[in-house]
Amino acid sequence: MRRASKPTAPLLTPSEPVIRSPRMRRRDPRQPDLPFDPMPQRIEPCLALLKPNAPAGPDWLFEIKWDGYRLAVHIDRQDVRIITRGGHDWTHRFPSIAAAARQLGVHAAILDGEAVVLDTSGRSDFGALQTSLGGRGGKRTSTESILMVFDLLYLDGHDLTGSELSVRRHLLEDLVVPRSDGAIRLSEEVEADGAQLLKHACQIGLEGIIAKRRHQPYRTGRTGDWLKIKCVQSESFMIVGYQASVSARGGIGSLLLAGKRGHDWVYVGEAGTGFNGKDAASLRRALDTLKTKTPAVPLKGKNLIFAQPTLIAEIEFRGWTRDGSLRHASYKGLREVQDNAAVFDMNDREV
């Protein structure tokens, strides 16, 4: 197995260096440039389509899949804005990333990446990221988080979204130093067979891999240009209630979950593991404030407490049953309201 350069996470063993063009000189932010293309206020992100198997062939580029919050970092001289996938300004939540962006020596740019907190082995830890932000609805700033940047959408007056990925990656590698240990790091390309890479990623406890068509432009939405292949599947679902239990810690036996299909909610089953007593008690307090007699999905059963569809949970699962329910679903944590666009779309489910 070979790779382009040493990854941030301990994924592969070292191999011979590859030939790269010389790094371009640092830009002087005080030097004005000619704005050929106006800098967009926001670019809707390209999203990865979930697939069970890695693609094969030379047209595909592979990266590690990071488990965090998708962010776009807009740099305009010394002004930096950090925008979430849902379009909210979270610059104040990630001061270390904002400070690192100001030091890149670029006049104007838009970086696409994932904010993560790494464990001691270099794996992204979604729970640790949540804790660093003070939990769902928290007001903390995260000084522990870093940005794993994997795309460059705009650079010094040039809109790069129409350029193919290989060109954007080349320019990005000139901008973000590979193997950096700062608050902005390069999510590096890994040259390998996709199936072997996925197997190795799973063996060392990573969430999975991302496959991208190297010759495609940047297109928003789930076009199939980017694919995600996971060791253990994980998606965001809406909590539409819970099953009360007098024996379970915190009073929650299981969470009732739903995906979306258009403007409708579709029941996908329950998650009864993954939360401890403290988590359950916190979830019950939050859900009890959202109680409703009108369920978001038609359900009947004992001890079911329905809630307005407001809380979004990240759920690990092992696949889908024939009737469209999650297999072995386990709770990982809550997503922020600002990420409501991430609720799983049932039209994307593999049948």
List the keywords.
disordered N terminus, D-amino Acid Aminotransferase, Chain A, domain 1, DNA_ligase_ATP-dep_C, ligase, DNA ligase (ATP), 351 residues, 2 domains
Concise overview:
Its EC number is 6.5.1.1. This protein has 351 residues and is of the alpha+beta class. 14% of the residues lie in helices and 29% in strands.
How does this structure look, described?
Strand 12 (252-261) and strand 13 form a beta hairpin. The chain has 351 residues and is α+β, with helices and mostly antiparallel strands. The protein is built from 5 helices and 16 strands. Mean pLDDT is 86; it is low at 1-25. It is an enzyme of class 6 (ligase). This is DNA ligase (ATP). Its EC number is 6.5.1.1. It catalyses: ATP + (deoxyribonucleotide)n-3'-hydroxyl + 5'-phospho-(deoxyribonucleotide)m = (deoxyribonucleotide)n+m + AMP + diphosphate.
Mean pLDDT: 86
Q: Bin the helical content.
A: 10-25%
CATH topology group of the largest domain: D-amino Acid Aminotransferase, Chain A, domain 1
Q: What's the alpha carbon Rg, rounded to whole Å?
A: 21 Å
SSE arrangement:
Blueprint: E1 49-50, E2 60-64, E3 69-76, E4 79-84, H1 95-102, E5 108-116, H2 126-132, E6 146-155, E7 158-159, H3 165-175, E8 184-186, H4 194-203, E9 208-213, E10 226-230, E11 233-244, E12 252-261, E13 264-271, H5 277-288, E14 304-306, E15 312-317, E16 330-335
Family: Belongs to the ATP-dependent DNA ligase family.
Keywords: Ligase
Pfam family, one: DNA_ligase_A_M
